[in-house]
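Journal club side-thread
Mid-discussion, someone asked how the predicted structure for our own chain would compare to the paper's figures. Pasting it here so we can look after the session.
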Amino acid sequence: MNYPKFKAAAAHLSPVFLNAEKTVAKACDAIREAARNGAQLVTLPESYIPAFPVWAALWAPIYNHAHFRALVDNSLRVPGPEVQRIADTAREAGVFVSVGLSERSSASIGGLWNSNLLISDEGVLLNHHRKLVPTFFEKMVWAAGDGAGLRVAETRIGRIGALICGENTNPLARFSLMAQSEEVHISTWPPIWPTRPPSDGRRYDIAAAVRIRAGAHSFEAKAFNIVVSGFMDAAMRDYLVDVDSGVGDLLDQTPRSVSMFVGPDGAQFGESISDAEGIIYADIDVALCIEQKQFHDVACYYNRFDVFDLKVDRKRLEPIEFASSAPGTVSEDEAAQTPR
């Protein structure tokens, strides 16, 4: 049997901060560049479009209304023209693309989700995942997602799944992908994760935490892990410091996240990047997952399904459902929306 082999790319890039149009253009440029370098799968960070809302960690909510408005104004509809532009670029370049974005809700002018899209090399949306639980200060920005995106896509380069940031800590979310024979996992992360002032001495080292979680998932799933984090460039730092010069030291001393690759044995391999922008690459051979499965296959023989029982609801949650008053009739709401 022939197993897929391909080159993967992790785009450790900054957005054009809070500018959806320019960030989409930068994403498309990165996709083309990675394709020229032989990549068949290109991954972009968490909430890459239009930016990760780090301000929610820096200031009290009463000071963040303008930032939230800017995020809403630059968040994307799915489907929508910006997503279509990325899909067209994926098709033209002949590559699979994973991209993180802030998604606008059609049910609310201020409703947002932290979402991840997987797009095929033919420009088809394969999976649309909304982060199950916004983490810590993210709760001031995004709504909770649902299980509709807990899916592994079967593609010509392998079976691909993805989780966003802290979801990679959730054993049940991770197992839901393992049990679909996930072979290539994508984990997306923000550029920084401020939790305490630098003088405290107990700041959160996001790079160390990412390495722990990526290694754990790869070792348990016996799958490859493409880790892709955002990058805070000078423009993002300047935007935040212009609002409050007092956060400059905090931003400078908060550890940066990392982009890297982890094999099915849980060990890091190939390139990694943290303190600069760039696209890194690694060759992936899905056949290497097989030997590791002999040791611990938690989705098959190394489990007790008579003892453990996991059920996952993958229904897409909607805030309202309209029903006609009787079969074959039209409700007043539907009639009001019918063109005359």
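Post-session note: The longest helix spans residues 20-36.
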